[in-house]
């Protein structure tokens, strides 16, 4: 267990890089050492804002600050994930723990490789799967731990972006969103991470994807609607519905997740706001957090990563790990496979096993 704050560099100073840097500045477990962006203006502006030096390449960061403990990668890229691999691998090669933004990668082979290398080197690789770091998620874990849900029966997740059918967003022809699976790859990592966090591994996936007429007419390539049916390892079933600005969400708002079991059911609404718990013959119990800003998930998630690294938890106990992020990408690629084969059932690729750390066997 380390006593001094963990030394952190943030790579990629877009909006999310600023959010992460702010979290490190505010957290007693970390010290923000420097920021980095290939774009000099962005790096310099962030450096001035946070009062730390600017760098313009990861290798310069690693060379100038060999004392760093954590490299936080907040780059983006095609499908919001293609620029994660290179900086993550540079950091792992230098023996640094890494927190990367989601999706871990838009390329399943790169995602597998990052997880493999981190495991091989015994380093922590975390991913910012922040949607289950909230007050309602804490309450949900408490209900499960107190056996108030019972045997899992079904799970449902409905999450995406509110919008209108006549003005679809992101149809800009030059946008890097102009790829068929950009919404699926960039975004579904979140609901899948929540569904797996509470419901366990998924063994079977069947998917349909589409886009509404307005997107078709404007030659928007992105498949913005996903309807995904699944079976969990524990035998229960699940359903995930996502859409990117084609309609307005009804009950539960932009983010809802419901888990039902033989003893009770909970539903989280708007991610951070509210949890309702139902059980037979009782009035529903409502936990209203008073929080409406989804941004509240970032400091909680980042603090959890800092705690896990500080405490030196066994790698398999790292919360929202790279392996957890890989699981969500395996599900997304299975969903794409299913869609491309007309709705066939696909079994996602198995995750790499944990082999354990021989140094802790007495
Ligand atoms: N977890 C969440 O809730 C959440 C929400 C929104 C976005 N995101 C994710 O956060 C990431 C960043 O999003 P954003 O909107 O800030 O992106 P952005 O494109 O605005 O910023 C990324 C920055 O990274 C820089 N960059 C790219 N490659 C680099 C490299 N090798 N070295 C140094 N700098 C490099 C770019 O110049 C750019 O300034 C994305 O992966 C996105 O999916 C997560």
Give a structural overview.
The protein has helices spanning about 15-25, 40-50, 60-65, 85-95, 110-120, 135-145, 180-185, 190-200, 215, 295-310, 320-340; strands at about 5-10, 30-35, 55, 70-75, 95-100, 125, 150-160, 200-210, 225-230, 235-245, 255-260, 265-270, 275-280, 285-290. It is α/β, with parallel strands linked by helices. The chain has two domains: about 5-130 and about 295-320, 3-Layer(aba) Sandwich (Rossmann fold), CATH 3.40.50; about 130-290 and about 335-340, Dihydrodipicolinate Reductase, domain 2 (2-Layer Sandwich). The strands form two sheets. It has an eight-stranded mixed β-sheet with strand order 8-9-10-7-11-12-13-14. A six-stranded parallel β-sheet has the order 3-2-1-4-5-6, sandwiched between helices. The protein is globular and about 60 Å long.
The main sheet comes to: 8 strands, mixed
Can you tell me the overall shape?
globular
- The CATH topology of the largest domain comes to Dihydrodipicolinate Reductase, domain 2
CATH superfamily of the largest domain: Dihydrodipicolinate Reductase, domain 2
Q: Which strand order spans the largest sheet, edge to edge or round the barrel?
A: 8-9-10-7-11-12-13-14
Report low-confidence residues grouped into runs of 5 or more. Answer: none
Q: Structural class given helices, strands, pairing?
A: alpha/beta
Helix coverage percent = 25-40%
Distance between the termini: 20 Å
């Amino acid at each position: 267990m380390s006593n001094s704050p963990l030394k952190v560099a943030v790579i990629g100073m877009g909006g999310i890089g600023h959010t992460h840097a702010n979290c490190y500045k505010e957290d007693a477990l970390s010290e923000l050492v420097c920021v980095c962006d290939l774009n000099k203006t962005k790096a310099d502006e962030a450096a001035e804002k946070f009062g730390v030096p600017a760098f313009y390449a990861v290798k310069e960061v690693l060379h100038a600050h060999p004392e760093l403990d954590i490299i936080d990668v907040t780059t983006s890229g095609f499908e919001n994930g293609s620029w994660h691999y290179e900086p993550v691998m540079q950091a792992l090669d230098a023996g640094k723990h890494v927190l990367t933004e989601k999706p871990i990668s838009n390329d399943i082979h790169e995602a597998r490789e990052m997880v493999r290398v981190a495991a091989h080197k015994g380093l922590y690789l975390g991913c910012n799967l922040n949607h289950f770091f909230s007050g309602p998620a804490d309450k949900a874990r408490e209900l499960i731990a107190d056996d108030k849900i019972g045997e899992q029966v079904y799970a449902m997740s409905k999450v995406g972006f509110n919008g209108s059918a006549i003005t679809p967003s992101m149809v800009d022809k030059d946008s890097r969103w102009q790829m068929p699976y950009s919404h699926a790859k960039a975004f579904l990592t979140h609901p899948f991470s929540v569904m797996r966090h509470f419901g366990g591994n998924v063994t079977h996936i069947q998917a349909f994807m589409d886009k509404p007429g307005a997107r078709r007419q404007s030659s928007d390539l992105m498949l913005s609607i996903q309807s995904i049916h699944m079976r969990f390892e524990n035998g229960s079933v699940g359903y995930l519905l996502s859409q990117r600005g084609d309609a307005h969400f009804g009950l539960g708002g932009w983010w809802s997740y419901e888990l039902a079991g033989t003893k009770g059911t909970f539903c989280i609404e708007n991610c951070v706001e509210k949890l309702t718990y139902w059980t037979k013959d009782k009035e529903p119990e409502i936990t209203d957090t008073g929080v409406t800003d989804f941004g509240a998930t970032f400091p909680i998630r980042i603090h959890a990563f800092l705690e896990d690294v500080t405490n030196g938890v066994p790698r398999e106990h790292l919360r929202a790990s790279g392996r957890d992020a890989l699981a969500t990408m395996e599900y997304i690629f299975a969903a794409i496979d299913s869609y491309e084969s007309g709705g066939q059932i696909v079994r996602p690729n198995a995750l790499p096993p944990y082999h354990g750390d021989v140094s802790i066997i007495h």
